[in-house]
Amino acid sequence: MFIPPSGTVTFLFTDIEGSTKLSQEYPEELPSALDRHQSILKEAVESNNGHIFEIVGDAFCCAFEFAEDAINAAIEAQINLANEKWDGAVIKVRIGIHSGYAEWINNNYTGYITLARTARIMSSAYGDQIILSKDTFELARDKFDSSKKKHISFRDLGERRLKDLIQPIQLFQVVSKGLRSDFPPLLTLDSRPNNLPMQLTSFIGREEEMEKVKSLINSSHLLTLMGSGGAGKTRLSLQAGADMIDNFPNGVWIVELAQLSEPSYILPEIASALSISLDPKRDIKEVVLDYLREKELLLILDNCEHLIDECASIINSLLRTCRKLKIIASSREAIRITGEITYRVPSFKLPDLKRSNTAEEVMEYEAVRLFTDRAVAIKNDFKVTDSNAGKIARLVSQLDGIPLAIELAAARVKVLTAEEIYEKLNNRFSLLTSGNRTALPRQKTLRAMIDWSYDLLSSKEKLLLERLSVFSGGWRLEEAEKICSDDQIDSYEVLDLLSNLVDKSMVIVKEDEGGNRFNMLETIRQYGLEKLKGSANEINIQKKHFEVYYRYIENSNIKLSGADQKEWLNRYNSEIDNIRESLKWGIVNDPESAIKLALEFASFCDAKYYYFEALEFMNQILSHNLEFESNMFLNVLRLKGQFLKQTGSLDEAAEILMKCSSMADESGDMKIYADAMCVIGIIDFEKGEYKAAKENLDKCLEIYSGLKDYRGIAFSKYCLGGIAYMETEYRSSKILIEDSLSIYREMKDLKQIGISLGNLGTVEFQLGNLQNAHKLYSEYLSISRELENKKGIAYALLNISYVHNENKEFETAKELQQESLEIGNEIGNKNITALSLLSLGSSELKLKDLKAAEDLFLRSFKLFNELKDKYQIVENILLLSEVYLTLIELSRSAVLISAFDALYKILGIQMNKINEIEFEKNLKLLRSELPEGEFEIAWKIGQSATFENISKLVSG
């Protein structure tokens, strides 16, 4: 198999000149012409050892290991295209060639800068022309000096400024017999008048934004690019101007306004940028208007916000007088004149932090590519690797994808690793300094960038910005009015002031299901918090924030288990960061209220499986040695035990819950006693200690019944139904789970309804009612998806996959199991991950991929052993035994099937029907295939199995 070259690669890019015009003039002939064009290019590239790695529309992207091969391919292609007999639609192709560093990874090329520069070289050429860079010329020149190739030469076109705005590059035209040799001046920046400054760094990404900006300026005369400081408005406007320069015969001109302190300086600065000769006897405005009156020109007015009123007046006059003039303005806020179109420049798109990102995956994101490009410029051996990819993804996300902030962070790779930079971002305003020495002062540090915007605010806007920084993850107007108003800002003023902050790009507004929601970039929020800290308002604002979210949880928590469960889970989701911040503040400043808040918040954590976060808060409360009511203390202990159990720390959980139940029994609080003992019963169940589990849960059911605690009754019956299932008492199990389901339906608790349906499906599965099982599992999946309950989705997918396996639809089963595995890994749930691996192994076993099955079973066994899940360990042993039986490793299979029998006896339960059939079938086969003495030895070894030594027996 051919592997595309890596390292120093020579790229050849092509494009058809005037393709749009051809499609309009020759709609019928063009498809056939394009097919012939494609065949000619393909033949030329492949016959010269090239690789076509991408075709975009009618443009070819090709890679060569050797520069001379790329040049030969280009010559062959152009000669054959020129000699082709075209039927009306004459295809003329421009070709650009450039050599640079790139790597072929994951079916694509890295080396963004090399690829982008190749595209720019190609776009500077005309149809029939071949242009190459000095880098390619230097690699290939010696190969064309022989007498055999004297007909091929290179015309030096000198240093040219490409439209990427970085340093000029020396270009060469390929000259050869059969090629057209005379062309107009190259389509570079040099061919049009302009004052666009050379950039020291490359322009990264922004493909979508560039197309949007060019489209908007084509359809209007004034486009204002808006956005927060450092968002890249200037660079985007410059690059758009460079790309569009051929549309403006009189050029593209930038006027930089940031350094101007007075409105009266604007017109002189415009005149200076355009090299207009001023007449002291004439009004400067009239001189500028006269000069521009008939010019077809693009004017970029950069950084208008601090002189916004005068800019509006001047732009209005210019556009009313100069009909061919177009203007791109950049500003924190809109110019607000007739005919203006605004476009808010977004931050870079960011990686999904919920995923375990590889180097290849994070490099797809512009924010990471920018960080990498700037880091390599400072430390040329810097690389994104699988080990640092996650931290880099978090780093650029913490910086909100703001280009300037990312560039300042990248500058620190000289002395810090990417991981260390991320760790220090809490003190970002000290870390992100020392920018480009030649930059404007406000572009040298992150603080200076935001100072610039902050200083343009009114006193009340500054005050509101500081107060809004108390919110984390956003807010609604109602909360802002409650928390931010006082004798300095009336509540009715908050809306207008907030609107002003949105207009000035300090606050972001988005519409969601509940209406408008406001937020700040984290960088601006941290700046606001610094301003708030130590101020007279700090304590009062923090306290009001805590009180608002305390009441929010207090009033809404009961909804999490009722008919409005999905709606309130979504509401909680939107306020989760505010609740977290309130808890952190409350534990230090109002412990008693914070504990009540934490106890209420635990219900949400349980519903969303945020077990580790809930544990963190419980540990914080207990570590403060606070004095609080016995009931509250017991509930904190109970919840800590419950969440420890959910994270797999079963022994520690049981110890804490036993302490809690004992203290509750002494104090006479039977509700907390039963709640704690119920979780202990579940732990016994998961450890395979079914007798102890049944005793505990029977006692809990009795207490809940006496207290008329219907939720407790439902949960106890549900758990007892699970025990009956494990003891193969399927009819009893079905009755208990149906009783539980009936109560949950009355409560309209969707989550528990779904779980109960899933367990009923499993009972039906064991009874052989596959159709009923599939129906119940599908209902469980539907409810879980509605609630966005990932744990429920994963279990439902696994359950449905078992039905498909029984129906011999193994590939469908595998797809469902793989999806479940991805969810388990994403949410960090070892049980789901282990079950998914076990299920995938079963599918591979049925498909006869025995090595894959063995690997999957061993991986799942290891996880179940860590979780101390005795029943699933036993399931694993039976399946591994079948793998080794099929591999004809008969002694090993016999040891494990014997161990399966021994461990089942330790569990003290009857085998389910499916396991019993499999066990008897395989046992009979092993007895017949193994010599009697050998079988007896293996059986004896297996019978010595315990849950403590089973790992050694599995490893052989």
Q: What would you say this structure looks like, in words?
A:
By secondary structure, this protein is of the alpha/beta class. Among the domains are: 7-188, 2-Layer Sandwich (Alpha-Beta Plaits); 207-344, Rossmann fold; 359-448; 457-520 and 530-536, Arc Repressor Mutant, subunit A (Orthogonal Bundle); 537-628; 872-956, no CATH class. Helices cover 59% and strands 10% of the residues. The strands form four sheets. The chain has a seven-stranded mixed beta sheet, sandwiched between helices. α22 runs antiparallel to α23 (565-589) and α24 packs antiparallel against α25. The radius of gyration is 35 Å and the shape is flat. Mean pLDDT is 87; it is low at 437-443.
Query: What name does the CATH topology of one domain carry?
Result: Alpha-Beta Plaits
% residues in beta strands: 5-15%
Q: What is the number of beta strands? A: 16
Assigned CATH class of one domain: Alpha Beta
Return Rg in Å.
35 Å
Task: Provide the CATH architecture of one domain.
Answer: 2-Layer Sandwich
Overall pLDDT: 87
Per DSSP, the total helix count is 42
The percent range for helix content is: 55-70%
| Anisotropy-based shape | flat
Q: In short, what is this structure?
A:
The chain has 956 residues and is α/β, with parallel strands linked by helices. Among the domains are: 7-188, Nucleotide cyclase, GGDEF domain (Alpha-Beta Plaits, 2-Layer Sandwich); 207-344, P-loop containing nucleotide triphosphate hydrolases (Rossmann fold, 3-Layer(aba) Sandwich), CATH 3.40.50.300; 359-448; 457-520 and 530-536, Arc Repressor Mutant, subunit A; 537-628; 872-956, no CATH class. 59% of the residues lie in helices and 10% in strands.
